[in-house]
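re: ur question from earlier - yeah i can do the single chain one, its not a big deal. heres the input i used so u can compare w yours
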Amino acid sequence: MPDRLFHTHRWMLLLFTILSLSGKAAAVTPSTERQLELRNLLYQDCGSCHGMRLTGGLGPALTPGALRDKPRELLVTTVRDGRSGTPMPPWKQHLSDTDIEWLVDLLLELESQP
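and the output i got, formated as tokens:
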């Protein structure tokens, strides 16, 4: 029995490592309804500072050129924790980690579209 437990544990550790390296460990997609709410939040709430077309305003642009060299994890951290010394607030009180990651992935998807 201990041998079997060891191999199961080893297999789970390997699987977790592979998923972590792919950047999608424990990724959960919000429901369709929540995705619509998050899109609305992006263009309305975020758009109030970043521009209704996300081309910039009080906050910087969230366009393909503006995001091109920004690591995904930096974007996630910025949305979650805000940016000290700027008007960018932390959204962690209002959005789950799943919501935040989905929004960042949406921005990065929009980035790759023509």
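Residues 5-9, 13-17 have pLDDT under 50 and may be disordered. not sure if urs matches, ping me
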